[in-house]
Amino acid sequence: MTAPAKIARPARWRLGWLAVAPAPLVTLAAALGPTLAPHPAEEAIGIPFGDPAACAPLGADRLGRDVLSQLLYGGWGLLLVAAVIAVSVTGLSCVLGAVAALRPRIGQWIELGTDLFILLPAVLGILLVLTSWPDAGTLGLIVLALLFGVPYCARIFTAAAAGVAASGYVESARAAGESLGHLVFREVIPNLRAVSTTQLGLRFVAAVYLVSTASFLQLPTTLGASNWAVMVRENASGMLLNPWAVLAPSLAIAIVAVSVNLAVSAFGRGERE
Question: Model's pTM, two decimal places?
């Protein structure tokens, strides 16, 4: 490695950490939000869409509640569900991709499933199912996100695992009579760390947008009344009176999604180098 490359790589990693820093800060604020909030979530502290003041730095929402308190109460549910979806989709897709690379017939079924689900937009499918099955709640949203996310993600893992499955040490393990489970979890998946990290970040960003959209449409019923996406929907009518009631939750969602995306790009380049 040349001297400029040695200098550039630490600089890139520093930029990567700077890019990812906002996401854990917002996530930590969301996790500790109920203990940090200056007012109870449902307590009215002023007039509807009141201006920012000492007791309410971001003003009031449509019911006169403190926007800052609503913001601190409303993030943990959305981010938790998005994280569960991201981990579940990435983990299941990684296993299916490794199995498909080792068993080409299974890979053909994964490709068929991808072609089938890619024709139907995830938001449309979730809207149709959760509208007709309102009691499904958050669990139904997670299951549907898996159904729409796993086939496409598994196809990516299948392509990445194909080269690993054709390597000499995997062929040696096969010749030694090792089971499929041993080949998947001991030989193939440990060599997919870079792809797994990248896909986990991308799946989390996609899940944040998906859960936000579903919450904006008020489909899941167990994410809390002060969810960030719900805040945007309910306070849109007072945008001109107190823009922070809409901008603050919108920025919180955007900061998490953009910083994770930037971090995935930065660290992904570092892994390839």
Answer: 0.83
